[in-house]
Amino acid sequence: MSSLFFWKEWSRTYRLPYLNSLFFLSLSLILFGVAWYRGVANVVQWDVLSELIDLPTTIRTLTDGLFDYNVPGKAYAVSEQFVASVMQVHPWMATTLLGALLIGFAGVLSAATRLSRVPFLAIMTAFILVLAVCRFETLEIPGLDGQYVFGILAFVLGSVAYYFHAFRTDIPMPARFGVFGLLLIGLFFGLGALSPVPHPALTAVSYGMPAFMLVSVGFILFIAFEIIAGLVWVTSANLAPAVGNPETRRTFGLRNFVLLTSLYLVNLLLVWLQNTKTLELGWLTVSPFLIYVTSLLLGVWGYRRQVEQQEDVPFAESGAFLYAGLGLIATSTIAYAFATANDPVVEMFEDAIVYSHLAMGTAFVLYVLYNFRQLFAKGLAVHRVLYKPKQAGLTVFRLGGLVVFGALLGGANLFPVRQAITGYYNGLGDLYAASGQLTSAQAFYQLGVEQEFQNHKSNYALASLALRNNEPGKAAFFFNQALLKQPSPQAFAALSSTYQQTNLFFEAIKALQRGLGQFPKSGELQNNLGYLYSRTSIADSAYYYFQTAVANTSRNEVPEANLLGLYARNPQVLATDSTLARQTDRYTYESYEANALAIKLVARRDTAGLAPPTWLADEPPVADSLLLTEGPAGLSVGRFASLYNYALASARPDSLLLQTLQQRGRQVSNQDFADDLLLAQAMVAYRSGRPADTFTLLSQLADGSPRTAEGYRTALGLLLMDSGLYPKANQMLELNTDTLSMYYRALTLTKMGDLVAAQSLWETAGRNDAGVAGLKQILYQERPPVSDLEKAFYVSYRTDDPNRGRYWETIRNTDLKTVSGATLIEEYLATRQPFYAQMILSQMGKPEQLSPFALSLENLSALRITVFRNKLPAADSMSRGFFALPHQAERQFLLGTVLARNQKTTEADRAFAEALRLAPLDAQIATGAARFWQQQKQTGRAYRAVVGVLDYNAREPELWKTYISLCLDQRLTDYAEDALPQLQGATSPADYQAFLADYQQKLTSIEKQRQAF
To answer: If you ran DSSP here, which 8-state letter would residue 554 be given?
Structure first.
């Protein structure tokens, strides 16, 4: 173990700096591994493009017990695809590389000062050449030409190095490293501060890359035989058990050395044949970069043995730091090639590793066999004298290996050199792209294509520039070229996206299919192919690819969301498997939650207890200062869809949600969603007991959106009808021309009792609908009712037929009998016949036989009868029964009425207030509550209750009478006089004359009081 951790034997002066150098080398290896693993993802990220899909659906179902009315609208599903971004340039990567290079060169210079004169001069000459190649004139230092910058750097660093080498060899390694490190960092920070260019570190790295590549290739050549040297140690050390005596160890011997080195060299040969496209045997070979890393790590110990056996370099004082510094430079440079996805440079290093290890490895094997085969045969420890040959020195074989390396390079027509040049141009293209000089960047990328037209980096970068210039056809050409030799899933996705932009749908599908042929485990490509299939009728293929993508992408919430979107767009799938609509709570991803809510709307699932989207529950309210500015608070597609769908699906009143919708709708950044947010706001307002706001918002939408006005008017008309505002509903539906609206108008006029006006509408609506035609025949007594529905319909709306009760008695459906019976009860109570009303109630269905709506209506009918008879205890008890939301307001109103009759003023006040809150536009409730408060001398409160209801109930005479009376109470005689024509048009002449007499009398009294005052 002492030889493994050899630095433990060193003094602290050298041990700590060396451990630090190993730390930096290890860190560079980690970064190299990360950059290698990520590949193209280092500069091309996967973005998610979200698309809204509107799904026509019913946003609210209303009922009157006989018929259901579906309020039309739409839900929103979100369909998402992965989009490969344009090629990005990250200047911080160059800064990181420059930091590693400074540390590496500081170590090399520090080590060089302890070498003999010739190696010292060789290293300093090489370093000065590196400085010369960096072209410091590109930093554009004010007042300093590039030659002066180079001269200053060379003079300062060279002088310090020579001082240490010639005069102060006694200075320890930490001090030398510190001096060179501070000098390099200080000089380059100073140059960066003085340089006016946008990215000085990227500029220096991009122009100096040829020198860094050359140094790295030299180091690769230097360590190319370390694996063979390691095999010498494995086969000459006493590692194998002796025959017959396992406790005794022996060497593996020459035969095993030849076998192992032959396998290793054959693998290198196969890699070389594969790189030259002679063979396709990737599964048989080892990556050249694994070979490099292995050589680098073995060299930590192998170079030590070499230095100590040759005895010409002090390892602890120089050789260890020289090796670590060069290793850091080479590893960081290779890592930078991967980090910038500069595949020509990566391939150049790949070839350099293969050529150098094949040439130097073969030469080293010959060196070992020529010098040490006899020692191998004797079973001696060859590794102890590996670098002390008795015949031919290592330098001779190294020169031979260089010749072979040159021959391999020449045999490839210097293609690795052209790749290095291509990579250099790509680096310059990155520099100018990061600086915003896109024309220059395009020129350098184009030069890269001219050197190596199949390289991925140049072509993808040119495609990215074409996309920025809105040239998708040109981008598609370069994406195709990027796929010729080094394809990537990102390039296939980008190519498919460009085809979509040019409406080449099937070409887009083919591009993704080609991509999956080469990258069968790419979840992004699978998701995108499912996305394209989901736009066709091939739902099963879309399902397959979405389902497969879930397991193959790190963002599995995207295909999961798409699966829910697919279910929402294909209700027939939900019909075959109802569990799909319930398993929708696995992710808090916005688009996933939006599609889960869309399923509930489309499938009309129970939404009781529906939780709000996660982001909405966690997000604070939008500040008022952001409402009229573009800012980060704007809704994304996923957030909008989830907010909109939740607003429509949630069944409970929610004032916070209403406030959120109002705020979001006022934001400038959400104007694309403005109409839909207004619709959602309108529906939430309706649930929250603010129907006037709902009607105002829907009217605004109908007036401002001609294309969708008819749908908004239909929704508004149905909600007005549901609120009992039949004249307004008819007025709104009259603007539509579709047959369905005519049917709704016919029902509205029928509910108003205007059968004459409704007749032509019934006839028009029933021309192509046998069911509607049958209702028309029943209503106008063209034939007697037969079915239970026809009988219930006749009983409910032919109030002029005193014998319709005989039809009611024959209704077998308990729900229909209860609903239509409630109409009879109202009529008997209106004519003061409570006995017959009680008889009807007794013949209604039993509670367990009724639907919730019918049960609620039966309880309401019982409460009506009890209140009519002024039975307070019974009314109080009955009011605690089940009442559906549409009946809650009348329940409170009836309770308030009976409480008021029994002098329970406080309780009556609360009941009337709650009734008015639940139904603020109901004329009967507003009139009753106002008269109660008028009696309690709360004139202002009574007036406010009435005045807001007038616009929606212009034909309610009692409402106008109450309003005029309240105006007189407040001495608003002008307002009262203006209201008289409205009352005259809403009531009969006799009733008007009777009221007018009272009005004149009260007006006279007011005038007398004024005169007396």
So the answer is: S
DSSP states along 288-331: HHHHHHHHHHHHHHHHHHHHHHHTSS-IIIIIHHHHHHHHHHHH
Both tokens assigned to 302: 């192998």
- Amino acid identity of 37? Y
User: CA–CA separation, 514 vs 525, rounded Å?
Assistant: 10
Mean of pLDDT values over 900-912: 93
Residue 477 confidence (pLDDT) above 90: yes
Q: What pLDDT score does 166 carry? A: 83
pLDDT at position 1: 44
Please, what is the Cα angle at 102 between 101 and 106, to 5 degrees? 115
Within a 10 A sphere around the Cβ of 947, how many other Cβ atoms?
A: 15
State the angle between helix axes of 173-194 and 91-112 in degrees (0 to 180), rounded to the nearest 10: 140
For 998, other C-beta atoms within 10 Å of its C-beta total 12
247 φ, ψ (degrees, to nearest 5): -75, -20
| Calpha distance 921→953 (Å, rounded) | 8
Residue environment code for 379-409, b if the CB has 16+ CB neighbours within 10 A, otherwise e = eeebbeebbebeeeebeebbebbeebbeebb
Structure-model confidence comparison of residues 11 and 761, the more confident one: 761
Residue 396, both tokens: 């001779």
Q: With beta carbons less than 8 A apart as the criterion, state whether 42 and 35 touch.
A: yes
SS3 assignment, position 782: coil
3-class secondary structure per residue, 592-637: HHHHHHHHHHHHCCCCCCCCCCHHHHHCCCCCHHHCCCCCCCCCCH
The answer to whether 602 touches 75, Cβ cutoff 8 Å, is yes
pTM: 0.85
Is 454 in a helix, a strand, or coil? coil
Give the pLDDT mean for 12-29. Answer: 89
Integer Cα distance of 818 and 858 in angstroms = 6
Q: What is the pLDDT of residues 590-631, one digit of tens each?
A: 999 999 999 988 887 666 667 888 888 776 655 554 444 444
Q: Note whether 20 and 323 are within 8 A (CB).
A: no
What are the two backbone dihedrals, phi and then psi, of residue 202, each rounded to the nearest 5 degrees?
A: -65, -35
- Give 605: exposed, middle or buried? Use CB within 10 Å, 0-12, 13-18, 19+: middle
| Per-residue model confidence (pLDDT) at position 2 | 54
- The length of the chain is 1013
C-alpha span between 641 and 565 (Å, rounded): 12
Residues 74-120 have pLDDT tens digits of 999 999 999 999 999 999 999 999 999 999 999 899 888 888 888 88
pLDDT score of 625: 46
Q: How far is CA 961 from the centre of its chain?
A: 59
Residue 632 has pLDDT above 50, yes or no: no
Q: Which amino acid is at 614?
A: T
Give CA–CA dist 301/281, Å, rounded.
33
pLDDT at 1013 over 60: no
Segment 847-876 shows an average pLDDT of: 92
In degrees and rounded to multiples of 5, residue 228 shows phi and psi of: -65, -40
Please answer whether residues 592 and 563 qualify as being in contact, where contact means their C-beta atoms are separated by less than 8 angstroms. no
Distance between first and last Cα of the chain: 118
Q: CB under 8 Å to 957, separation ≥6 — which residues?
A: 983, 986, 987, 991
pLDDT at 241 over 70: no
* 223 pLDDT tier (thresholds 50, 70, 90): very high
- Of 1001, 936, 989, 990, which is closest to residue 964 (Cα–Cα)? 1001
* Partners of 62 in the β-ladder: 69
Q: Which two tokens stand for residue 227?
A: 């694996």
